[in-house]
Records
---
Amino acid sequence: MDKQVKIVTDSTLDLSKEEIKDLGITIVPLSVTVDGNSYLDGVDITSSEFVKLLVNSKEVPQSSQPSTGSFLEVYDELGKDGSPVLSIHMTNGMSGTYASAKTASDMSDSDVTVIDSGFISVALGFQVREAVNLAREGKSVKEICDRLDKVRKNSSLYIMVDTLEYLVKGGRIGRGRAFLGSLLKIKPIASLEDGVYTPAAKVRTHLQMIKYMKNKFEEEASGKVVKGIGIAQVEAYDLANQVKKALKEVSGFEDISIIETTPIVSTHTGPGALALMYYFDE
C-alpha cells in the first residue's frame, strides 16, 4: 500500500494552534528580527507580543525565510520511511521561502514536491487544509496538486492597511507604489494578483471598506459554492467582526474565522490592517 502524503508548510498560514495540531502538519517557521533580537515566528513570540515590539521598534523589523538546511532536515526526517512529502508555501512574490524549500527538495533523498500557493495567511491555510483532507483519503501528490490548482484559481484575498508606512519601509509594496500619491486619510485596499500586492481601491472610511469587500464577495460568489471564508487582522478585531457580520448576511456562511495574523505579515502591514480571504467551488 502507498504511504500517505505528509504535508509541510510555513508559519504564515494563519490557522489556530488547535487546527494546526488537528491537521498534523509540519511547520517550518520564518523568523523576524526587531532591534537586533531574532524570534522564530509563532515559536518564540506571539502575534500580540510582536505588535507591541513593532510599534515601538527603532528600526524596521526584518523578516527572514527559513534556511535551506531547516527544510532539508524536515524533508529527510518525514520521508525516511518512504512517505512522499508535499510542501506548500507562501507566495514567492513576497518571500524567498518557496525558493529555499525548492533548493532543499532538490538536495533531499526524500520524495518532495514543493508548491507556491500564490497566497499568504488564511488563503494559504485553505490549500493546506484541502491537502491534508485529500492525503487522509489516500490521494496521490499529483491528485492533491491538481485540486490545489483549482483552489488557488478560485481564491481571493483583499487587504486593507490603515497606513502604508510599513509596506513602504519593508520594501514589499511592489505595484502598490501607485498608492503613494495623496495618502491623506486614504485607506488603500489591495488584492494579491499573481502573488504580488496589487492596488484594488482607495477608501476613506472603514464603512466604505466593509461595503467594498461585501460587494466584491457578492460579485465573485455569484453562482458558486462558498468553501471557506477567513479574516486575518492586526489589532483590528472589532472591525473584523463587522466584516464577518456583513459577509454572513450575504453568504449565509457560518464558519468565518477571525485570526490575529502572524508577525511575518504584520511586519509589513502594521497595526489596524485587515485581510478578507475566501474560496469557492465552481
---
Amino acid sequence: MTNQSIESGKRFAKTLTAALIAVFVIVSIFASVVFAADGSETRNVKIIIDAEETTVTTTETEPIEILTTSGIALQDTDRLDFSGYNETEGGSIVINRLKTINVEHNNVIESKKVYALTVGGALSEAGVNIEKNEMAGAPLDAPVLDGMLIKIKPYFTVKLKADGKTQSFNVIEGTVADLLKKAGVTLDRDDFTKPKLNKKLKAGMSVKVYRVSFKNKTVTRKIKFSTKMIEDEDLEIGKTKVVKKGKNGKKKVTYKIKYINGKKVKSTKINQVVTKKAKKKVVKVGTKTAEGYKDVEPNGVTSKWGYSVGQKISGKYTHYCACATCNGSNSGTTSSGYRIYNGMENPYYIACNWLPTGTVINVDGVNYCVVDRGGSGLSRVGRIDIFTPEGHAACYRYGTGPCEITIVRLGW
C-alpha cells in the first residue's frame, strides 16, 4: 500500500523545481538585452581614435549616428573602419586621422601626410627608406604626433656604463641627458655623469654614471689625556715627579660617509659626544740648578720640539773646525750668527739639526750650546758635531764615538 503523504511530497518537490528552472530561463533572456527607459535596446560601442579608446552606451544602430550623438566631429580626411561593429551586438568603430609629419633626410625637410600610428609605420607609408647606416631620431614604435619632425641621419655608437652594466647605443645626435633617457636611466639628487649631462654626444664616446650615496657611522674614539707641568724649585733641573696620573677618556664620533658607486671616498665628522672625560696628568718639573749646571741661565721652557728639560738621550759625536773643509767656506759664521775661528778660546759650541738653537746640552759632563746646523746626517736624534778651535788635525785626533746627552735648557 502506497503512503499518500510521501507521494504528495514528491509531486510538490517536482512542481517547485520546474518553477525555479522557468524563472532562471526568463531572467537569463532579459539579462542578455538591456533596454532604455523608452523601451529601445542599448548597446556598448568602443570608439577608437588613433589608438585612444572610449566606450559609449547608445541606442543608435548606425555608426555615423553613434559618433554624432557621442559628440565626435568627423573630418573629411578621417579614415573610418566599421568592420568591428555589429548593429545588434555593438562592437568597435575605428577612426584614423590624417596627420602631417616632417621628415628631415639628407639635410632636406619634406612634409608627408600619413594615417599610421607609429613612427615606423608613418615612414613606411610615406615611402621613406632608411639605409643600413641610418636611423630615425625617434623610436620606430613611438606614436606619431601631428606636425612632428622625424630626423633620419647616419648613426654613430656610444657606450653607457651604469649600475654595473655597459651598453652600446646607436644615436644620430643628442646630449648625455638624451642618452640616459633613451636607456631609461634616472639620476638621484647627488648622482652625476662623466661627461656632464649637457655634453653633446660624439662617436666613440663613453658615458659613465656615478651613483652617490651617504651613510652615517658612529665609532668610539679615545681621548688622550693632557699633561700639566708645574715648576718646583725644590726639584733639580732635569728631574720630574708625577703628582697625578692621567687617564684617557672616551667619545662617540659620528661620521657621514660618502660613497661613489659603492666605494668610500670621503668621511666627514658631523657629531661628537664625550662619554667619559679624560683626566689630566700633573707633573712637577724641577727648576733648582743642580751642581755642574749653575753657569746655565734657565729660560723657563720645560719642553719644546718634542723634547723636555732633563731628558737623557744616547748619541754619537764627531768634531769639526772653522776651516773650509769642515764648513765649506772660510766665512767663520755659524747658523746662529756667532763667529768661530781656529785658535780662539773654546766656546763649547755644537752643531745639530734636531734641537732648537740656543739649547744647552751636557755631553759626558761638559756643557755645550747648539749654535750651528749641518748636513742631513745631523738630523738624526742624538747626532752632534762638536766644534774644536784647535784646527783640522784635532778633529781627527778627538775622533768620533758614542756619548750620553742630557738636555739642560731648550732654546735661548
---
Amino acid sequence: MKLIDANEPDLSTLSGKMIAVLGYGNQGHAHALNLRDSGLDVIVAQRPGGANHRRAIGDGFNPIAATDAARTADLLIMTLPDESASTVYAEEIAPNLRGGQALGFVHGFNIRFGFIDPPDGVDCVMIAPKGPGTLLRSIYLEGKGLPALLAVERDHSGSARATALAWAAGIGCTRAGVVETTFAAETEADLFGEQVVLCGGVSALMKAAFETLTDAGFEPEIAYLECIHELKQVVDLIYARGIRDMRDKISNTAAYGDLTRGPRLVSATTRHCMREILDEIQSGRFAEEWIAEHRAGAANYSRLLDADADHDYERAGCAVRDLMPWLREG
C-alpha cells in the first residue's frame, strides 16, 4: 500500500482543461459540484427526462449528451452504474474518443472484468472515494474530505497519475489522504466488502437475529431496536475510533459477549463461504452473473428486492422510526 499524503491540493494538471462527468446520480453530482467549486471547468452528461437531469439543471449545469461530452472533454469521469456503463461506453463514448484524452472511473468493475477496453492513446485512471456521493459532497462543504483509492491502468500521456491526483484534489479527497492501488485490487476488495460485510453480511445477520428473537416470542419492535436500530451506534464508534476503542465505550458485559460469542458466529463454515465468495469475485463469475441478470431484464433481482419488502422487520422498523421523526430530516 502506498499512502499519498497531499493535503495541499494541486489542480494544475487539470487547470484549463474540460472535465465531463457522465451521469448525475449519487457519485456524479458530488464529483461535478466539488470539481466546479474547486475552480475547474466541468460539464455534465445526463440523459433528459429524469430526476437526475432536473437535478443537474437545478445545480446550474446544462446537461449534454454523452456523445458530445466524449468529443469535448479532456477528462471523462464515468459515474454510471456498473451494469449499464459498458453499453453507454460502446454506443456513445468509444466512437467519439480521441488520443490524448483521459478516461476516469470511480469504481474498477468494468475495467477489471473487461466490459470496457479503452483504446490506445487514451489514459485510464480511477479515483474511488470511500463513501457515498452524498457524504463526499457534504464533507467537502465542511472543508474536509473522504479518503480515496487511486489507480492508473493506462498511462499513454505520461501524466495519468498527475491527472488522477488533481481529480482527487478537486473533489477534496487529498484532504484526507489517497491510497495508491490497482483497478483489480479496488474492485475485488470492494465487491467482497459489500457482499460479505457491509451489505450482504450485515443485512443477513440482522435479519436472522431479528427472526431468532421474534420466533422466541419477543416483540418485533424490541427485536428491531436490539438487532437493527442500535447497529448504527456501534458502527459510528468503530468509524471514528476503531474496534478496540469501541469496546472501551460499551459496557464490560457487551465487550465480553463480543469477544466470547462473536467468534462462535464466524465459524470455519462462515470463513469457507467467505473464501468461496472471494473466488467468485476474482474469477469473474459474479460480474458475469450480474451483467447477464441486468441484460436479461433483472427479473430475479427485482424478485429478491420484493421478497423482503413486506417482512416483519420492515413493519417493525417503520413503527420504531415513527417514534423519531427527526431521523427523516435531511
